[in-house]
Write a structure and sequence with these properties.
Structural class: mainly alpha
CATH superfamily of the largest domain: MetI-like
Number of strands: 2
Radius of gyration: 34 Å
Oligomer: single chain
Order of helices and strands: HHHHHHHHHHHEEHHHHHHHHHHH
CATH topology of the largest domain: MetI-like fold
Strand order of the largest sheet: 1-2
Helix content: 55-70%
Number of domains: 2
CATH architecture of the largest domain: Orthogonal Bundle
Distance between the termini: 71 Å
CATH class of the largest domain: Mainly Alpha
Length: about 425
Amino acid sequence: MTAAATADPGLPTAPPGGGADPALPGDLARSLARAQRRRHLAAISLTLPLLVFLLVVFLLPIGALLVRAVENPEVAAALPRTGQALSGWNRQDTPPAAAYAALLDDLSALPEAAQAGALARRLNTEQPGSRSLVMSTYRALPQLRADGQTPAPEAAQAQLLALDARWGEAPYWQAIAKNASRWTPDYLLTSVDLKRTPEGGLSRVEPDQQVFVSILIRTFYISGVVTLWCLLLGYPLAYWLSTLSARQANILMILVLVPFWTSILVRVAAWIVLLQREGLVNSALMGIGLVNEPLALLFNRTGVVISMTHILLPFMILPLYSVMKSVPPTYLRAAVSLGSNPLAAFFRVYVPQTWPGVGAGGLLVFILSIGYYVTPALLGGADDQMLSYYIAHYTNVDINWGMACALGAILLAATLVLYALYRRVVKSELSLG
């Protein structure tokens, strides 16, 4: 009997040419690992462009916003020697004479007047009058340094005091010392009506300057009212759509989505036409006898809420409709057949199953509402502007990027907190269910 005949047929045989058989377990595992790595690399190569796009247009701008909210480069970059000379100052007595000489050195080292202007604007936000003081000193540098050399500290102090007596007042030097560091919490503190004292502690800003907390509360209040109205209008509409046939629901859903196809500016302009004193709304109300004179619906909070509700209503309807469509209608019929009142069955059986849609729609509408700018700016009055209006003001008018980014960081933090609360509520409901 040959060796081939005596071999166990259940065992693999060696290949004719010798070497490892690819069908062996070890080789098979390596082949599978290589194939899996190739699939992973292919998946990564397909998703990499999207990841790069999100990084460039989403994550990097948010990171830059957060960094700029605590960055304070103007004073630190323009007056490095002055900040160092003031590092040991108690911020109450007269600054040391070396600080005056360092100030002349730093101002003379500025390559162009634009940097001096940026320095002056930044200090003026801390201490009114600093802008004229810094710019007048910058323009007088040729006389203060006639030979191109900075005078001795005592002589520099005397020259600056002779040029402007305000250089002998502590608040102007306190503003410089306070902003000598490149990083500062001042913008974030100001956005919640707090400030640093000259001694380094925290205190509330003056009563006539405490505006941002009230603006933030106003922003949340208007957003909450808009979210509530969207829920009250969107819930029955979404329920009605969920009871229709697929063809009818699709046709009516097109009408719901019509606002998405129109510019916000066009919709706001249309509401201005509708809500004005001689507009269609007032004319209709007076025509049917509900009012005797036109109502004030424009340039107040009423117009803002109406327009924002109209614009954001689809964002409430779509999540509600998707959840309601998945709820079997037999549940309500079963509850009624077991003796429950139809209205009680609706609120006890049907509504609890739609909480995920209510939460998702409410969160989406509220988050979009707190960032609204165009609608309140065009339809609201002075007391109806939301936080985004002041972000635009600091960006385009005051050119205070630090304050604008700090207010933007407040909105971002509020959004993240709301999302975290929503996730926690959803998880608790799922665990209870």
